[in-house]
Design a protein that fits this description.
With 355 residues, this protein is mainly beta. The chain is built from 2 helices and 27 strands.
């Protein structure tokens, strides 16, 4: 989730090293997990190749760590960015290893991989035959055939330079996919999935960091406001609502200067927004104003780093990355912000994925 800038020479060196690495673990383990559960994608540390995957069973409150390595006999790679479920498989995007792994969602064993991607961030499935992969340091979104694990084409973003390009999260409403362009950018793009072309671009403010769709077909956008000297500008962060029919901003609520909001998401009904800004904030999508206090206060030590809401019971899961060097903690809260459970996972848990 977090952008980790580096010089191009260093990135190329890391790519060469990661492409040559072979990991040995030992005897493989067999897993058979229940139909519902939660994957925790742990980034690890940039250039350390210590990304990991954990799996949590809410019914038993049991967590299994390092499941990718235990099932496949190799490490996950360098900076695990995100994960998406499709077709009974989990698709894990590993940013600085330039790869997307597909695993069986029950056994955790690899079923295939998409390789040689510039700097992948997220994968979105249009259907069983086509998916999009967003990129950092590129002005294109890769089009892939998930059946063959191959890149079949690209979607070019108008007006974006490859050296500073950034495409991030994707949300599909009808035939259109909406994507926020984050690092050094200020726009949301609208892609027609029938033609694989960008049909419209909307300036929403400095660095739209995350997006989510509500139950009324609207798009919500969280901008982080950038920083002083940023090529895209510097302003107060904001939460915005975009009408997708007219493709224009219909509501903009400014946060405070110095705030660092991120990880916007909704509950399963699409009626409630959640995001991290120190603590965890919660807001009804029909609210005319921002809440005046967080739903879950910020930790006294450490830092909330990623967030998800259970589609089954509405419990909120939030990861505390601590010092980004040690095993981190995930906290589980009920709808009244009461702590239900906590468990230890890998280093820097940056994303969740529900099975």
């Amino acid at each position: 989730m977090t952008l980790r800038p580096a010089h191009i020479a260093i990135i190329l060196l890391c790519a060469a090293l990661s492409g040559c690495m072979k990991w040995e673990y030992g005897e493989l383990e067999d897993f058979a997990t229940p139909s519902q559960g939660l994957f925790i994608v742990c980034e690890g540390n940039f250039q350390y190749g210590n990304a990991t995957l954990s799996y949590y069973d809410p019914a038993t409150s049991r967590v299994q760590n390092e499941v990718f390595m235990r099932a496949n006999g190799m490490k996950l790679g360098d900076v695990a960015q995100s994960m998406t479920m499709h077709g009974g498989r989990g698709w894990i995007v590993v940013n600085n290893s330039h790869v997307v792994f597909a695993i069986d969602a029950s056994t955790f064993k690899e079923t295939g991989r998409i390789e040689n991607l510039p700097s992948p961030r997220y994968i979105h499935f249009v259907d069983d035959t086509k998916a999009y992969i967003t990129q950092l340091w590129d002005n294109r979104i890769s089009i892939v055939d998930p059946r063959r694990y191959s890149v079949t084409g690209y979607i070019e973003v108008p007006g974006m330079e490859a050296a500073t390009g950034s495409t991030e999260q994707m949300v599909q409403l009808g035939q259109y996919v909406y994507c926020n362009c984050w690092s050094y950018q200020r726009q949301i793009i609208k892609i027609d999935t029938r033609t694989d072309e960008v049909t419209d671009v909307l300036d929403v403010g400095v660095q739209p960091r995350s997006i989510a769709a509500d139950n009324r077909g609207r798009l919500w956008v969280l901008t982080d406001g950038g920083y002083a000297g940023n090529a895209a500008g510097h302003e107060r962060p904001a939460l915005l609502c975009v009408d997708t029919e007219s493709f224009r901003v219909v509501l903009r609520m400014r946060l405070e200067s110095g705030d660092t909001p991120f990880d916007l998401c909704t509950d399963s009904s699409g009626s409630t927004l959640y995001w991290i800004n120190g603590g965890v904030w919660r807001m009804d999508v029909d609210s005319p104003a921002l809440p005046d206090k967080p739903f879950i206060p910020a930790p006294v030590k450490g830092r909330f780093y990623s967030l998800t809401v259970s589609p089954a019971d509405g419990n909120v899961y939030v990861a505390d990355a601590a010092d980004y060097q040690q095993a981190a903690t995930v906290y589980r809260y009920d709808d009244d912000a009461r702590l239900v459970d906590s468990f230890i996972v890998g280093v820097t848990p940056g994303a969740f994925c529900w099975k």
